[in-house]
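Thread amino acids onto this structure.
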């Protein structure tokens, strides 16, 4: 049996999604029961000057750069990126792909907000926040939505090329952006590390689920040329 058969990749995706969801559940349990307190505090303080925990490590420009990076996971930036790609797909005649992408991101937003309302974990009070925040902390919305949006777009772009180099580039770029946004939230003191880890897990799981749906639609010829088994 050939390993690249669609059925095998679908099975791998299902196991990956299940693993990410279980990881999210474990992090949520550890965080909300207080078992991750020491871990969270240690990482938060690692990003602060020992003599002044109100001051993030590094020169002033680094803090400003972190604000720029964290904006890549904001509703405003992700909305612009998503809308730009959706419009392009409509113009290219890929209406189903455009609706799929829009549905993946919008449903991800709803999922993120639902989880925040469910857990209602307070933001860190150990260090001052370097940016304004308006919602509860768990899971990190920036980490969740950047994972959903960038990983989905990375996978979409990677699917357009047969070259391993291009696939690795797009997926690597998507992962790098997702990691950078999450780390910036910890650096700026607005999220516990477990908030971000949970956001990465559930965001990656949702992106993987949406991508599995995309591949099935593509394989059956409903999105672009069908995938060859």
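Threaded sequence (229 positions):
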């Amino acid at each position: 049996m050939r390993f690249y058969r669609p059925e095998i990749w679908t099975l791998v995706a299902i196991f990956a999604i299940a693993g990410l969801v279980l990881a999210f559940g474990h992090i949520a349990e550890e965080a909300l029961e207080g078992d991750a307190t020491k871990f969270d505090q240690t990482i938060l303080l690692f990003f602060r000057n020992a003599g002044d925990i109100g001051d993030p490590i590094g020169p002033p420009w680094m803090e400003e750069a972190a604000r720029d990076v964290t904006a890549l996971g904001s509703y405003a930036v992700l909305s612009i990126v998503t809308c730009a790609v959706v419009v392009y797909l409509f113009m290219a005649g890929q209406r189903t792909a455009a609706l799929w992408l829009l549905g993946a991101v919008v449903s991800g937003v709803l999922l993120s907000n639902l989880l925040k309302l469910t857990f209602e974990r307070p933001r860190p009070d150990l260090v001052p926040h370097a940016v304004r925040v308006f919602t509860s902390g768990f899971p990190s919305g920036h980490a969740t939505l950047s994972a959903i949006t960038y990983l989905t777009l990375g996978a979409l772009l990677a699917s357009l090329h047969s070259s391993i180099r291009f696939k690795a580039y797009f997926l690597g770029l998507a992962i790098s952006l997702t990691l950078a946004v999450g780390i910036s939230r910890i650096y700026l003191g607005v999220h516990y590390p477990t908030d971000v880890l949970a956001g990465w897990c559930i965001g990656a799981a949702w992106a993987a689920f949406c991508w599995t749906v995309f591949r099935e639609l593509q394989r059956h010829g409903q999105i672009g040329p069908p995938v060859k088994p």
